[in-house]
């Protein structure tokens, strides 16, 4: 203990935490942001574990998910926890937004915290859209086809945005690759950066 105390001053940190009082207006609803963070960490860990077995190809995506669910030890549990935690993360995020709005937590001087929070909400929903497609079953395929076609209604740039999302004119391997890359590489780090700004 003394060795760590000399280098890290653990006791000072512990004293700082233990001597601060919780304000009287704070209640259990102030934990919703922290619960959302815990859900994200669970998502990160279980998602990372699934990358060892998932094959992001049109031909093998569905069978790799089936293999994970039926043949990999505890694969069914890892995927199920990932899905449950995703649903819980969205629910906790919605409740957190309501709590912040109802208590006026978005007002000056916390406007930037609110903006980063709204950005994280958009990223979280995007996680759901991209993750939903990865098993490449009928539900995932048609969800991608519909969602990626929505920007076509935007004047001037709509068709370009659809082609950018799909990686071509139609939904296929390029679409799955893009959604997989967004889901596993781009969005987790983007969300982590916005979380640091949010804290």
UniProtKB/TrEMBL annotation:
InterPro entries: Cyt_b/b6_N, Cytb/b6-like_sf, Cytochrome_b_N_euk/bac, Di-haem_cyt_TM. It comes from the Bacteria. One of its GO terms (molecular function) is electron transfer activity. GO terms for biological process: photosynthesis; respiratory electron transport chain. It holds the Pfam family Cytochrome_B. Keywords: Membrane, Photosynthesis, Transmembrane, Transmembrane helix. GO terms for cellular component: membrane. The chain crosses the membrane at residues 27-54, 84-102, 114-134, 140-158, 179-197. Residues 1-199 form the Cytochrome b/b6 N-terminal region profile domain. This is Cytochrome b6. It comes from uncultured Synechococcus sp. The gene is petB.
